[in-house]
Give the backbone structure.
Amino acid sequence: MKAPSDTLQLRLGQGMVTLVPSVHHCTAFSQVVLEELMSGSHHIVAVELPDALQPHLHLLQNGAPEKPAILVVPVEGGTTCAVPVSPADSISNAIWLASHAPSPCEVVCIDAPSREQHHESFRPDPSLDYYVAGQGRRYLAATLARMNLKRDETPADPYDLVRDEHMAARLLHLAHAGRHVLAVIGAAHHAGIVSWLTSPRTPVAQPQECSVGHPVLLPIASLSARNEGWYDRIPYITWLFQEHQRRVVTEGAPALFECDQALMLLLEESLEVAAKKLEHQEFSVRRVAVFERYVHAQLRLRGHWMPQKVGELHSWAMETVSQGFARVLREVAESYPGADDSGHHLVRKGRVIQVMDGKGRVIVTGATTDEGSPAEEVKRPNGFHFVPASEDQRVHRRCYARARAIAHVRLAKARTHERTTRSAAFLATTGLGLDVRATIRARAAGRDSMMVRLPARPKQSDQLTGPLSCDGLCPVCFIFDPSMEIGSKQSGCFFLKQGTVYASHYWFANTERVGDGKVSRSRTAYFTALLREIAPYRENAIQARIQHLPPHRLCRTKPWLDPELKKFSGAALAIACAIKYAGDHVCVAAPRELVLSREVTEFAAARSVRIARIWPEDLNPSDFMRLRWDYVVPAPSAYSPPYLWADELVERLAP
Amino acid sequence: MNTLRNRSPYLANGRSPHDTDPALTASGESLYERVTLHGVTLHLPPPNSTADTAFIGQESLVTACEAAWATGLAFALESPPGNGKTTLAAHLAQRAGQPLYTIQGHEELTPEDLVVTARISGSGDVEYVGSPLLAAMMRGGVALFDEIAKAPARALATLVPVLDDRRSISSVLAGITVRAHPSFKFCATLNPSDSARQPLPDYIDERLRPLLQLPRPDAESIVRIVLNAGGARADVNLLKAFREWLSAATEVSPRAALKVFRYATALLLNEPSLPANAIAQASVAVMGSQHGRAGV
């Protein structure tokens, strides 16, 4: 299996133009460039960079392709042109490769200069990235069609047409000189360039005239680059590609980058890490073998070369191996060996991404083309709409359901003595009756004896003794740090939209801003979910249900302000709050060291509420650990799912 | 084996020609097929009908299941009742063009029940009856072990050679060993509440990977399921009332929603009233007072 390589070739006069589409920070296209350049059939590499940068290309040619950086170029008129250099970016990679390949090529910048700020290269276009990388050999046609579609849908920047024609004219000129040109140009320009090359016409306008100042190459901190997707979807695979490219250039290894082999190397590394961190039963040989087969089958059926994101690999590992191994696999897949966290930081501010130095000074400002970004939300008077991260919602739902299911069984169970029977050949007594099955079995075995059931030794067991009486809204209380005394200032509430009915109360050990300040992360000491759900979009359903609850079941006062609960504090307050608004029982999921105080048990008894204890080990350990972390992320509106990027960021940050 | 396959009426199109009654023909003749293997005559049960089994939504889950089968892996589907595990298995069998055989897990299941049991014929002879699992293995069908977590561990031990590379099963009673047809596929379903109470033995859990979670479909998918199951011909106002109820209800499984809709349709046919009232009445009747009223 190999990466997509159906480049578009156009024979023009005595020369030839080979077009390789470029999608920023997408390793698949760097692979294509590597294969093309190692074929040795090109004289020139033409890249989509303003031709005014031509004298400064040595900065990129002499740089290290595996280190993320940004080339900052002052442009006449006070604006700045910024070119990202990432290990996965095919344009910067092509420039480096052209001068380090065994048969070096000349590099030519062919884009029209622009006084406008460069806007398109600070973040990969996720949808296109997913789409292109996933389409294998058909990717080019599909990409171009998509680009055309995009241009039809949205009014193109008129200057884009000028750039298309300028680049096409330069390519035509080079080809007519009898040169073989490898053109590494953004996929969005392909349709326009091919159209012009196949039927040249008079340019619609002349490109702008502008000069540039002296550029500088600024290193970018690895973590920052990773968070912005500069290492592509699976950083470890990008690192493997960089290592492969180094061997190709220095040792003459074959240029083909085997995706299969890269995945196997990722798996090997994960197994080595797992061997140090996990118990053996968490990644048995059989399960790992199943995982390997399963991954390949998934990719084959989806027509993909690589998993489209780390989350995909993670869930496949969960389904086949174990949660522990999935966690290790994720860690390895997201790592980029040798990453250097020194350097400048990328800070997202709405529609723009700023490059900052260590002292917080803005060096340059770029933009993102990520349509799902919260850009338009940032400057709203009220700021973002914040909602719980999608994974939080899933974990909460799973844990509540599990806790309630176990609690119900425990409450309804009673120890019984089950009478069991054994079969024996009939001698004098029929005992508990004829054993038809055993008689037939005996007959089949050639014995004509009649078999009867006789009482065996009673067996002790647990059985459900009656129907479950829960109304489905029983409060669930999760205690992580029983000994912590959290005051009201470190607490939070989630209440329903239309009214003041509280759905849950949280006591946080600490809260911090992560992900460039876009995500709020809290470590919960304990919390009480009175109405179970935290997902905002389930709220209508909860509203509908609570209308049928008696008033005493609805919490309208914060527990720390409730006179009836003033004798409780810390974790006891969380439990007492649950008891106060419970029907006939509450579930308390807490470590065994939590001893329910006499006040709590008496408070429950006075209200005829039964407390069902759940142990952390009853729940999935990783779920229980994840449950204590609370992520609040931006969303397009208060009652919609979070932005995709925000959820992905949480996936990376979550323990 | 080839003789058996050629004689089987179920292999031509992957379905029994007697879909109306899987056990008996119209004349009361047994549909159990007689086959002889290593000198032992076995009676094999017919497959389930999987005609027109549609599984709405969750395409990635279908891909995941097919990816498992494509590499010869057995898989398990886990979700609360009524979410469509069995329907998904039937849908997969239909997509694969293979007959579906269902083994029902329960507390009384014995190792024999999974392979060969014996019965006394009218003439007093002992007859061997193959299990649905054995039939699936011999005919190259899909074996669905429904509610596997309910089966006792000693019965499940029989599955070990079926689920690993041996792909075979042995009957102590009949004294035979059967190797699975190359097309044979296996899947199982389980409820989280069962697996919480009685986890699968490690040796089965290891062999039933991937373990795929079947999430509860969203309201829109449930509406599509209902429409696909004949709801498209229903009264527009009833559909509207159903949508409203569904959007407000919590934790409604597709099965329960379908029952509510069908029951409401029947109520309206017998006694014309407001569609919303019919839905309210049906939801309480189907789901109980707490759950039923919630969405009304």
Q: What stands out?
A: Chain A touches chain B at residues 281, 284, 286-287, 290-291, 293-294, 296-298, 300-302, 316, 319-321, 401-402, 405-406, 409, 437, 440-441, 443-445, 471-472, 533, 538, 540-545, 548, 618 (CB under 8 Å). The radius of gyration of chain A is 32 Å.
